[in-house]
User: Fold this.
Amino acid sequence: MSQTLTISDKLYKRLSKTTQVLGLNNVENLLEMWQEREDELRRRRKVVRQIDKARKQLFARYGEMPDSVELIQEDRMR
Assistant:
């Protein structure tokens, strides 16, 4: 199903110019690209929130974890 959106000529010209700069075929492709980027950003933010939550849970359960850099370096030197 198609929808019609009315925007100013000035905005359409700006969108068309951006479309050309990015090498896209039309304004619709530009809008699709922007929407995909927004979806990806939302997904990444959600993952970061999940990681932060897991870190807090681990800290609450085990306290501060020791730094393992020195142990890893010792293993590599062997």
User: Anything to note?
Assistant: DSSP finds three helices and no strands in the chain. Residues 9-77 form one domain. The radius of gyration is 24 Å. The chain has a mean pLDDT of 94.
